[in-house]
Amino acid sequence: MSRESEQTQGAAEASEDALESWEDGPAFGVSEDKDPVCEVHVEEWIEGIDITSTADVPIPEKLVDQVIGQEAASIVVRKAAEQRRHVIMVGEPGTGKSMLARSMTEFLPREQLEDILVFRNHEDENEPKVRTVPAGRGSRIISERKAQIRLQRERTNRTLLFVALVIGAALLLATISSGEILTFIFGSFILVFGYFFLRTRLTAGDDANIPKLLIKHEREDEPPFVDATGTLAGALLGDVRHDPFQSGADLATPAHERVEPGAVHRANKGVLYIDEIRMLRMEEQQALLVAMQEKELSISGRSERSSGALTKSEPVPTDFILIAAGNLDSVQNMHPALRSRIRGYGYEVYVNTDMRDTERNRRRLIRFIAQEVRNEFKKGSGKPIPHFDRSSISLILKEAQRRSGRRGKLSLRLRELGGLVRIAGDLAAEEGAELTRAEHVTRARMIAKPLEQQVADRHLERQAEYAMLVNRGNRVGRVNGLAVLGADSGLSDYSGVVL
Ligand SMILES: Nc1ncnc2c1ncn2[C@@H]1O[C@H](COP(=O)(O)OP(=O)(O)OP(=O)(O)O)[C@@H](O)[C@H]1O
Ligand SMILES: [Mg+2]
């Protein structure tokens, strides 16, 4: 009994502590948000916060800890990374799917990274050989190989030159003894010609023995994150470039040099992210499935009429974790076998569109503003935007409440909210203001209206001219009809507009 009460006390203390600090703690292990919904109005609440602007807010280093309001999805991402499982991520645009996918590489081991080399195959030119070496070794192998060839070439040249000199000397002796100058001229002409001919002959083509570094990493590189959204088949699955000289022996570029890796190969030992996977053709989804099952895929020419179509490399490793994102529709239209593969060997997550309006989440949103300001700063182009003061923070928080469309919730459509942050920041930067203030956010809201809302506004304006409707003050009368103009039903952003 006493232990129980101790525990509850401990829990209460812990939650109080969490509210006091900016630390979220680790992103994982957070199960259910039990905090009470904050009933205090944002303007009032912000007065009790221990910062003067977003500049005072510490930002976690890891990307996964910067993701806000997607605890369940964060857990899945980490689990999937640990266990090497594929993930389907479904949710509204701009709620952090790409961000979560990108953060996954932070959990993947770096030691497993591999360099991949393609070699000429002397037995069958059209089936280049593929070798895998630990990360960082690839470039060394190539430079060693190049040095070796240079050495060999120098040696050949030296021998050749020596032979030419000996023959030249013999020729000279013969000329001196016989006195026939014409033989000498003629002989040395043939000698010089023969020397250069042999030299090019003997050294030509040895370049073709240098392997091509298909996938290159440094030892300390992070595991790759490859976004293959909307790529063509060649870019996704690899391709063999067309050779304009076709089979013209000497002129032709050797097949192994024309092999190009696809996203599936570049994502080896990392994450392959594909948004709107149903946009891929069925054959491509099929090939993707093969790559996932076999963990390797040969590279062959993708355009049928090119000479590249003859070539097919040995299998190249494709040991990636697939993250397929999109809306529900796009998942339902995906290749059934592919979907089933992911369901059977991975996770499906639905990311949140809103979160509860608690103190902790309000603080997280403030951190979000700080993150966006810092991202703009790190971008390095354009003017950086000033940090947000309390008045502007409170407006952004109110906007998040409003955009959620429900009481006691905060919107997680953070890309759009970030848009408002950026426009307000731009306005402040233009003025040279030190901090972004409430007036900037108010003005930004006018500018940041979605197109649909701008159309609706125009419509309202015109209707007002004919005095068909009342949008100011109040009047006693009869309502003949009601209509709701919304920018987006999911956004329920402007559903307050009533005609
Ligand atoms: N949950 C979140 N936490 C913090 N920032 C977020 C979150 N969601 C979105 N953002 C911000 O919005 C930007 C866009 O988010 P992201 O690209 O991850 O969205 P998405 O879900 O992949 O959208 P889409 O479906 O359009 O691809 C991020 O770079 C980040 O700045
Ligand atoms: Mg995305």
From TrEMBL:
Location of the region described as Disordered in the Swiss-Prot/TrEMBL record: 1-33
A GO cellular component entry from the record: plasma membrane
Subcellular location: Cell membrane
Transmembrane segments: 159-175, 181-198
SUPFAM superfamilies attached to this UniProt entry: P-loop containing nucleoside triphosphate hydrolases
Domain AAA+ ATPase: 83-348
Name this polypeptide is given: Archaeal Lon protease
Keywords: ATP-binding, Cell membrane, Hydrolase, Membrane, Nucleotide-binding, Protease, Transmembrane, Transmembrane helix
Record membrane topology: Multi-pass membrane protein
InterPro entries: AAA+_ATPase, CbbQ/NirQ/NorQ/GpvN, Lon_arc, LonB_AAA-LID, Mg_chelatse_chII-like_cat_dom, P-loop_NTPase, Sigma_54_int
Family, similarity comment: Belongs to the peptidase S16 family. Archaeal LonB subfamily.
Acidic residues composition-biased segments: 14-23
Pfam families documented for this protein: LonB_AAA-LID, Mg_chelatase, Sigma54_activat
GO biological process: protein catabolic process; proteolysis; regulation of DNA-templated transcription
GO molecular function, one term: ATP-dependent peptidase activity
Organism of origin: marine metagenome
